[in-house]
Protein backbone atom coordinates (compact mmCIF):
# COMPACT_ATOMS: atom_id res chain seq x y z
CA UNK A 1 0.00 0.00 0.00
CA UNK A 2 1.31 3.42 -0.97
CA UNK A 3 1.59 5.96 1.83
CA UNK A 4 1.19 9.61 0.87
CA UNK A 5 3.20 11.99 3.02
CA UNK A 6 2.10 15.64 3.05
CA UNK A 7 5.25 17.71 3.57
CA UNK A 8 4.52 21.22 4.73
CA UNK A 9 5.68 24.11 6.89
CA UNK A 10 5.90 27.87 6.53
CA UNK A 11 7.63 30.09 4.03
CA UNK A 12 11.41 29.47 4.27
CA UNK A 13 10.96 26.90 7.07
CA UNK A 14 12.99 24.25 5.20
CA UNK A 15 10.47 22.20 3.17
CA UNK A 16 12.52 22.33 -0.03
CA UNK A 17 15.64 21.33 1.89
CA UNK A 18 13.85 18.23 3.22
CA UNK A 19 12.16 17.53 -0.07
CA UNK A 20 15.44 17.79 -2.05
CA UNK A 21 16.94 15.25 0.33
CA UNK A 22 14.01 12.85 -0.09
CA UNK A 23 14.29 13.30 -3.86
CA UNK A 24 18.00 12.45 -3.69
CA UNK A 25 16.94 9.08 -2.23
CA UNK A 26 14.86 8.54 -5.39
CA UNK A 27 11.55 8.87 -3.57
CA UNK A 28 8.80 10.32 -5.78
CA UNK A 29 8.01 13.96 -5.03
CA UNK A 30 5.04 16.02 -6.15
CA UNK A 31 5.99 19.68 -5.76
CA UNK A 32 3.09 22.14 -5.46
CA UNK A 33 5.32 25.22 -5.96
CA UNK A 34 6.53 23.71 -9.25
CA UNK A 35 2.96 22.89 -10.30
CA UNK A 36 1.94 26.48 -9.49
CA UNK A 37 4.70 27.72 -11.84
CA UNK A 38 3.42 25.39 -14.60
CA UNK A 39 -0.17 26.56 -14.08
CA UNK A 40 1.00 30.18 -14.40
CA UNK A 41 3.36 29.75 -17.33
CA UNK A 42 3.42 32.18 -20.28
CA UNK A 43 0.27 31.91 -22.41
CA UNK A 44 -1.71 29.86 -19.87
CA UNK A 45 -5.39 30.55 -19.10
CA UNK A 46 -4.40 31.47 -15.52
CA UNK A 47 -2.01 34.14 -16.85
CA UNK A 48 -4.79 35.69 -18.96
CA UNK A 49 -7.03 35.90 -15.88
CA UNK A 50 -4.19 37.38 -13.79
CA UNK A 51 -3.68 40.08 -16.46
CA UNK A 52 -7.42 40.84 -16.53
CA UNK A 53 -7.63 41.25 -12.76
CA UNK A 54 -4.18 42.59 -11.80
CA UNK A 55 -3.18 44.42 -15.00
CA UNK A 56 -0.99 43.51 -17.98
CA UNK A 57 2.04 45.06 -16.24
CA UNK A 58 2.22 41.86 -14.14
CA UNK A 59 4.02 40.33 -17.12
CA UNK A 60 7.65 40.64 -18.17
CA UNK A 61 8.50 41.54 -21.79
CA UNK A 62 8.82 37.81 -22.67
CA UNK A 63 5.26 37.06 -21.50
CA UNK A 64 6.37 35.34 -18.29
CA UNK A 65 4.88 36.36 -14.96
CA UNK A 66 6.74 39.09 -13.07
CA UNK A 67 6.88 37.05 -9.86
CA UNK A 68 8.45 39.81 -7.81
CA UNK A 69 5.74 42.30 -8.80
CA UNK A 70 2.83 39.91 -8.17
CA UNK A 71 4.44 38.79 -4.90
CA UNK A 72 4.70 42.40 -3.71
CA UNK A 73 0.98 42.88 -4.43
CA UNK A 74 -0.45 39.67 -2.98
CA UNK A 75 1.68 39.43 0.16
CA UNK A 76 0.73 43.00 1.10
CA UNK A 77 -3.03 42.53 0.75
CA UNK A 78 -5.28 39.65 1.91
CA UNK A 79 -7.94 40.71 -0.65
CA UNK A 80 -5.49 40.52 -3.57
CA UNK A 81 -4.15 37.24 -2.25
CA UNK A 82 -7.68 35.78 -2.17
CA UNK A 83 -8.23 37.08 -5.69
CA UNK A 84 -5.09 35.28 -6.92
CA UNK A 85 -5.97 32.14 -4.96
CA UNK A 86 -9.40 32.09 -6.65
CA UNK A 87 -7.64 32.02 -10.03
CA UNK A 88 -4.93 29.47 -9.33
CA UNK A 89 -5.78 27.11 -6.44
CA UNK A 90 -8.41 25.04 -8.31
CA UNK A 91 -6.00 24.50 -11.21
CA UNK A 92 -3.17 23.57 -8.85
CA UNK A 93 -5.48 21.12 -7.04
CA UNK A 94 -6.52 19.42 -10.29
CA UNK A 95 -2.90 18.95 -11.41
CA UNK A 96 -1.86 17.63 -7.98
CA UNK A 97 -4.71 15.10 -8.16
CA UNK A 98 -3.65 14.04 -11.65
CA UNK A 99 0.02 13.62 -10.69
CA UNK A 100 -0.90 11.70 -7.53
CA UNK A 101 -3.02 9.18 -9.40
CA UNK A 102 -0.32 8.78 -12.11
CA UNK A 103 2.27 8.14 -9.44
CA UNK A 104 0.07 5.71 -7.49
CA UNK A 105 -0.20 3.49 -10.57
CA UNK A 106 3.48 2.57 -10.04
CA UNK A 107 2.71 1.42 -6.50
CA UNK A 108 5.68 3.00 -4.67
CA UNK A 109 5.84 2.54 -0.87
CA UNK A 110 5.87 6.31 -0.35
CA UNK A 111 4.87 9.43 -2.29
CA UNK A 112 5.76 12.88 -0.97
CA UNK A 113 3.43 15.80 -1.64
CA UNK A 114 5.47 18.94 -0.93
CA UNK A 115 2.88 21.66 -0.39
CA UNK A 116 3.28 24.88 1.60
CA UNK A 117 -0.45 25.57 1.82
CA UNK A 118 -1.53 22.05 2.92
CA UNK A 119 -3.55 23.35 5.90
CA UNK A 120 -4.64 26.67 4.40
CA UNK A 121 -6.05 24.92 1.31
CA UNK A 122 -7.34 21.89 3.25
CA UNK A 123 -5.39 19.00 1.73
CA UNK A 124 -5.46 17.00 5.00
CA UNK A 125 -7.73 14.31 3.54
CA UNK A 126 -5.56 13.84 0.44
CA UNK A 127 -2.61 12.53 2.46
CA UNK A 128 -2.01 9.76 5.01
CA UNK A 129 0.44 11.54 7.28
CA UNK A 130 1.57 15.14 7.63
CA UNK A 131 5.16 16.21 8.28
CA UNK A 132 5.64 19.82 9.37
CA UNK A 133 9.07 21.41 9.06
CA UNK A 134 9.20 23.91 11.90
CA UNK A 135 11.43 26.87 12.77
CA UNK A 136 11.03 29.69 15.27
CA UNK A 137 9.73 32.84 13.62
CA UNK A 138 12.89 34.93 14.16
CA UNK A 139 15.02 32.26 12.42
CA UNK A 140 12.36 31.92 9.72
CA UNK A 141 12.49 35.66 9.02
CA UNK A 142 16.30 35.71 8.98
CA UNK A 143 16.47 32.75 6.56
CA UNK A 144 13.80 34.25 4.34
CA UNK A 145 15.68 37.57 4.13
CA UNK A 146 18.95 35.79 3.59
CA UNK A 147 17.45 33.85 0.66
CA UNK A 148 15.32 36.68 -0.81
CA UNK A 149 17.81 39.52 -0.37
CA UNK A 150 15.47 42.08 -1.96
CA UNK A 151 12.88 41.78 0.84
CA UNK A 152 12.70 44.46 3.51
CA UNK A 153 12.01 43.51 7.13
CA UNK A 154 8.35 44.48 6.66
CA UNK A 155 7.96 42.56 3.38
CA UNK A 156 9.48 39.44 4.94
CA UNK A 157 7.11 39.71 7.89
CA UNK A 158 4.12 40.21 5.55
CA UNK A 159 5.00 36.98 3.73
CA UNK A 160 5.20 35.08 7.02
CA UNK A 161 1.93 36.60 8.25
CA UNK A 162 0.13 35.66 5.02
CA UNK A 163 0.15 32.01 6.13
CA UNK A 164 -1.34 30.11 9.05
CA UNK A 165 1.04 30.58 12.02
CA UNK A 166 3.71 27.89 11.82
CA UNK A 167 3.33 27.09 15.51
CA UNK A 168 -0.32 26.11 14.82
CA UNK A 169 0.79 23.84 11.97
CA UNK A 170 3.35 22.27 14.33
CA UNK A 171 0.58 21.46 16.81
CA UNK A 172 -1.39 19.66 14.08
CA UNK A 173 1.58 17.66 12.72
CA UNK A 174 1.80 13.87 12.74
CA UNK A 175 5.56 14.18 12.36
CA UNK A 176 7.30 17.31 13.57
CA UNK A 177 10.73 18.17 12.20
CA UNK A 178 12.64 20.84 14.11
CA UNK A 179 14.74 22.82 11.64
CA UNK A 180 16.11 25.37 14.13
CA UNK A 181 19.46 23.58 14.15
CA UNK A 182 21.80 22.50 11.36
CA UNK A 183 20.59 20.96 8.10
CA UNK A 184 22.37 17.72 9.07
CA UNK A 185 20.44 17.62 12.33
CA UNK A 186 17.19 18.10 10.41
CA UNK A 187 18.00 15.38 7.88
CA UNK A 188 18.83 12.94 10.65
CA UNK A 189 15.32 13.46 12.09
CA UNK A 190 13.92 12.76 8.61
CA UNK A 191 16.01 9.59 8.27
CA UNK A 192 14.79 8.33 11.63
CA UNK A 193 11.18 8.63 10.46
CA UNK A 194 11.93 7.19 7.01
CA UNK A 195 13.36 4.02 8.52
CA UNK A 196 9.99 3.34 10.15
CA UNK A 197 8.13 3.72 6.83
CA UNK A 198 10.56 2.32 4.28
CA UNK A 199 12.76 -0.01 6.38
CA UNK A 200 14.56 -1.29 3.28
CA UNK A 201 15.82 2.19 2.36
CA UNK A 202 19.58 2.67 2.25
CA UNK A 203 21.34 5.91 3.13
CA UNK A 204 24.76 6.97 1.93
CA UNK A 205 25.85 8.34 5.33
C1 LIG B 1 3.03 35.22 -5.82
C2 LIG B 1 4.14 34.42 -6.46
C3 LIG B 1 4.16 34.64 -7.96
C4 LIG B 1 5.49 34.92 -5.87
O1 LIG B 1 6.53 34.17 -6.43
P1 LIG B 1 7.93 33.95 -5.69
O2 LIG B 1 8.86 33.38 -6.72
O3 LIG B 1 8.34 35.22 -4.99
O4 LIG B 1 7.65 32.90 -4.53
P2 LIG B 1 7.52 31.29 -4.63
O5 LIG B 1 6.58 30.87 -5.69
O6 LIG B 1 8.88 30.70 -4.61
O7 LIG B 1 6.76 30.98 -3.25
C5 LIG B 1 7.48 31.07 -2.05
C6 LIG B 1 6.58 30.68 -0.90
O8 LIG B 1 5.57 31.66 -0.71
C7 LIG B 1 4.46 31.06 -0.09
N1 LIG B 1 3.25 31.32 -0.89
C8 LIG B 1 3.10 31.26 -2.22
N2 LIG B 1 1.83 31.55 -2.59
C9 LIG B 1 1.17 31.81 -1.45
C10 LIG B 1 -0.17 32.17 -1.18
N3 LIG B 1 -1.06 32.31 -2.17
N4 LIG B 1 -0.51 32.37 0.13
C11 LIG B 1 0.38 32.22 1.13
N5 LIG B 1 1.68 31.87 0.93
C12 LIG B 1 2.06 31.67 -0.35
C13 LIG B 1 4.78 29.55 -0.04
O9 LIG B 1 5.33 29.23 1.22
C14 LIG B 1 5.82 29.39 -1.11
O10 LIG B 1 6.62 28.25 -0.88
C15 LIG B 1 3.99 32.90 -6.14
O11 LIG B 1 4.22 32.66 -4.78
C16 LIG B 1 2.65 32.32 -6.56
O12 LIG B 1 2.45 32.09 -7.73
N6 LIG B 1 1.72 32.08 -5.59
C17 LIG B 1 0.42 31.55 -5.89
C18 LIG B 1 0.47 30.05 -6.13
C19 LIG B 1 0.54 29.27 -4.86
O13 LIG B 1 -0.39 29.23 -4.08
N7 LIG B 1 1.69 28.62 -4.61
C20 LIG B 1 1.87 27.79 -3.47
C21 LIG B 1 1.71 26.34 -3.87
S1 LIG B 1 0.19 25.67 -3.32
N1 LIG C 1 18.87 24.17 9.07
C1 LIG C 1 19.20 25.19 8.29
N2 LIG C 1 20.24 25.98 8.59
C2 LIG C 1 20.57 27.05 7.80
N3 LIG C 1 19.90 27.38 6.67
C3 LIG C 1 18.85 26.63 6.33
C4 LIG C 1 18.44 25.51 7.10
N4 LIG C 1 17.35 24.95 6.51
C5 LIG C 1 17.10 25.69 5.40
N5 LIG C 1 17.99 26.70 5.31
C6 LIG C 1 18.01 27.75 4.27
O1 LIG C 1 16.86 28.56 4.51
C7 LIG C 1 16.24 28.94 3.28
C8 LIG C 1 14.80 28.40 3.26
O2 LIG C 1 14.83 26.97 3.17
P1 LIG C 1 13.94 26.23 2.09
O3 LIG C 1 14.07 26.88 0.74
O4 LIG C 1 14.25 24.78 2.21
O5 LIG C 1 12.51 26.54 2.71
P2 LIG C 1 11.04 26.30 2.13
O6 LIG C 1 10.21 25.96 3.32
O7 LIG C 1 11.07 25.35 1.00
O8 LIG C 1 10.68 27.76 1.62
P3 LIG C 1 9.52 28.29 0.58
O9 LIG C 1 8.20 27.87 1.11
O10 LIG C 1 9.68 29.75 0.66
O11 LIG C 1 9.84 27.74 -0.78
C9 LIG C 1 17.11 28.38 2.16
O12 LIG C 1 18.00 29.38 1.76
C10 LIG C 1 17.86 27.23 2.85
O13 LIG C 1 19.09 26.96 2.25
TrEMBL record:
One MF term in the entry's GO annotations: dephospho-CoA kinase activity
Coiled-coil ranges per UniProt: none
Compartments, record wording: Cytoplasm
EC number: 2.7.1.24
Pathway per the UniProt entry: Cofactor biosynthesis; coenzyme A biosynthesis; CoA from (R)-pantothenate: step 5/5
InterPro entries listed in its UniProt record: Depp_CoAkinase, P-loop_NTPase
Family, as annotated: Belongs to the CoaE family.
Protein name according to UniProt: Dephospho-CoA kinase
Organism field: Atopostipes suicloacalis DSM 15692
Primary gene name: coaE
Amino acid sequence: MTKILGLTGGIASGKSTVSAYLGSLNLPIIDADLIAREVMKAGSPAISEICEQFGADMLLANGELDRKKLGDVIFASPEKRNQLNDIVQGRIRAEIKRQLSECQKKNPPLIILDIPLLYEEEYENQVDEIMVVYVDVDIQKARLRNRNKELTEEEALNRILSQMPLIEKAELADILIDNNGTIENTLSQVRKWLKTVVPEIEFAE
